[in-house]
Amino acid sequence: MSAVTHRLRLGATGLVIGVDEAGRGPLAGPVVAGAVLLCKPRPSGLDDSKKLSAARRAELEAAIKRRCHWAVGVVEVADIDRLNIFGATMAAMTLAVEALCSAIGEDPAEVLVDGNLTPAGRNAGWRWPARPIVGGDALEPCISAASIIAKEHRDRLMRDLAAQHPHYGWERNAGYGTPEHMAALRLHGATPHHRRSFAPVAQLEMQV
Asked: Are 5 and 115 in contact (CB under 8 A)?
């Protein structure tokens, strides 16, 4: 887990943090949450990370990291299998917001969370007022920024893992269950980075 150390001049109240996750659906790799407190003026062109080209995401990630406050929370496969993916996602969001609050030295007035649920009441470490926003990664700039930070961070992690396990195409599919990934899983079996609590992996392991 990492957080920025660059500090902006912040007011004492009214801070709003955006949170989003990347990697909820893949068969392999961690789930990553991003948390962002936007600067003023915010980077232009923020949008749902899935709607942006890889080049544009990289440009925006660099701008967010250079000018704004950000942090990530990473929950690895062992904890995904232990908690289930929903619990792991709530944990990753909590880690990200906690890291960001530590970096800026204060708590936000509100955390905007992409989706229809927040970690409030669902993770013991969550202590901030939170509001879920369905489709928030396309509607709220701070959530858009968080989605970019989360996706870019996770994609880098998956490229690193792909270098260690080159059969599965993770540098292309980010661990999702593409035909290429499934064929390699059947041929080579599961790695320590596969989520054994996910049905496609569990079913293949039962057949071995």
From this structure: no
Neighbouring C-beta atoms of residue 15, cutoff 10 Å: 19
Residue 71 φ/ψ, nearest 5 degrees? -160, 160
pTM higher than the cut 0.85 = yes
In the numeric block, which tokens belong to residue 110? 């509100």
Could you give the 3-state DSSP secondary structure of residue 73? strand
Angle at 65 between CA 64 and CA 69, to 5 degrees: 85
Strands of 11-68 (E only): list them: 16-22, 31-37
Instruction: Quote the tokens at residue 140.
Output: 């709220």
pLDDT tens digits for the chain (208 residues)? 333 333 343 444 589 999 999 999 999 999 999 999 999 899 999 999 989 999 999 999 999 999 999 999 999 999 999 999 999 999 999 999 999 999 999 999 999 999 999 999 999 999 999 999 999 999 999 999 999 999 999 999 999 999 999 999 999 999 999 999 999 999 999 999 999 999 999 998 776 5
- The answer to whether the CB of 141 falls within 8 A of the CB of 19 is no
On whether the CB atoms of residues 157 and 171 are closer than 8 A, the answer is: no
Query: Residue 155's Cα: distance from chain center in Å?
Result: 10
Q: What is the dihedral of CA 70, 50, 63, 142, to 10 degrees?
A: -50
CB 35 within 8 A of CB 100: yes
